[in-house]
Amino acid sequence: MITQKSSTERRYSDFVWLLDCLQKRYPFRLLPSLPPKSIQYQGHFIGQDEGFLDRRKKGLERCLNVLINHPVIKLDGILASFLNEPNVTLSLLLSLSCGEADEV
């Protein structure tokens, strides 16, 4: 369970892993979508534009807010670890199997 406010730096691929893992653990739960990693406009990929990155960051924050306010998912240890573990430990977490969750 998440009880404290914390700040941990994560890459977009970390969020992809988290949502993939949660989808495997909770296949019948409605989960939020991630914002796009980049978009293509007139044949050019936009992914490094400062405005785009700010909007993507806000989208990732909204996604996390949905997860931490979900009555079941907020109790999952993987979410708590994702939010609290430093990056060094996250690589170990990412190597672990998502497994199945015990539904509440």
Q: Span from first to last CA? A: 13 Å
| Order of helical and strand elements | HEEHHH
In helices, the fraction of residues equals: 40-55%
| Main sheet makeup | 2 strands, antiparallel
The CATH topology comes to PX Domain
For CATH, the homologous superfamily is named as: Phox-like domain
Could you say how many structural domains there are in total? 1
CATH class category name: Alpha Beta
Q: How much of the residues is beta strand, in percent? A: 5-15%
Which blocks of ≥5 consecutive residues have pLDDT under 50? none
Number of helices, where a helix is a run of at least 4 consecutive DSSP H or I residues: 4
User: Quick one: how many beta strands?
Assistant: 2
What is the correct CATH architecture?
2-Layer Sandwich
User: Which strand order spans the largest sheet, edge to edge or round the barrel?
Assistant: 1-2
Classification by helices and strands: mainly alpha
Rounded mean pLDDT score: 81
Describe the global form. Answer: globular
Give Rg in angstroms.
15 Å
Task: Describe what you observe in this structure.
The protein has 104 residues and is mainly alpha-helical. It has one domain (12-93): PX Domain, CATH 3.30.1520. 48% of the residues lie in helices and 6% in strands. It has a two-stranded antiparallel sheet. It is globular, with a radius of gyration of 15 Å. 8% of the residues are buried.
